[in-house]
Amino acid sequence: MRPTPALLCGLILTLTACVGAQTAPDPLQPERGFVKGRVLDRSGRPLAGAEVFADNTVFPNSNVVGRSDAAGRYRLDLRGLVGSWSAGATLTVDYRGRRYTFGLHPLDNRPFTAEDAAVRDFEWRLQGPTPDPDYVYGAAVWFEVELGNREDVRYPEIEFTLEPQGPLVDGSAGTTLVLRGLLTDIPVGHYLVSARYLRAGQAAVRLTLRPRGGGEYQDRTALEFYQVGSTGQEAQLEVRFPD
């Protein structure tokens, strides 16, 4: 029996639908010729608009760049490209009238080729070590000390208390930090900071502070972070001993 034109049309439409379903890539499955993955915050929520790049480890300045979608997914096309690649990602956000760019943490930092069908997910971390153990994700606070009539001050005996004023830059709740010595790996947020000098066997000495560059010295002052370099943040303080 010869098929009628209507039957032929139905067969063609069915075949077309099947082929279309087979060729649509699954956004969560490995795919040869591509690197893909998701960008999430610490609570597992997707982050849209993160810049994700595959950096060729052999040929400099040969990046393939894309952005994460509303579900936090990205997909970079490496078909036909040679060499080994490493993946990285950054996220730029506005917080309290300033713009910050953060490096994101790769959950798998291994290099890959275009044929590996690599999946590389990223997480936004506000503190903790980066893949390079010499660096951390948190911000630094640098301070200068006006000694007054003192000459024997030991910086590790200066205690700083940072009290968060509202959510951190990623929307999470902050916690009060009590720190001595180097002030590093601090989650970016809006804090009120106070300081005192603690030496064994002596009464605590209340210090006054101000942002570096001016203003009145106070018992507590606002700590505001600034962008430094491509993905760094820091704040600066001036600390004064009483006369």
Structure description:
The chain is mainly β. 8% of the residues lie in helices and 39% in strands. It has one helix at residues 5-23; strands spanning 34-40, 51-56, 64-67, 73-77, 85-95, 98-103, 105-106, 122-123, 139-146, 158-164, 177-180, 183-186, 191-197, 205-211, 221-223, 226-228, 232-240. The strands form 3 sheets. Strands 9, 10, 11, 12, 13, 14, 15, 16 and 17 form a 9-stranded mixed beta sheet that branches. A 4-stranded mixed beta sheet has the order 4-1-8-7, with no helix packed on it. A 4-stranded antiparallel beta sheet has the order 3-2-5-6, with no helix packed on it. Strand 5 (85-95) and strand 6 form a beta hairpin. The N and C termini lie far apart (108 Å).
What Rg is obtained from the alpha carbons, in whole angstroms? 26 Å
Uncertain parts: 1-21
- Sketch the major β-sheet: 9 strands, mixed
Succession of helices and strands: HEEEEEEEEEEEEEEEEE
Total count of helical runs of at least 4 residues: 1
Alpha-carbon distance between the termini? 108 Å
What proportion of the residues is helical, as a percent range? under 10%
How many β-strands, per DSSP?
Answer: 17
- What does the overall shape look like? elongated
Look at the structure and give the mean pLDDT: 89
Class from secondary-structure proportions: mainly beta
What percentage of amino acids are in beta strands?
A: 35-45%
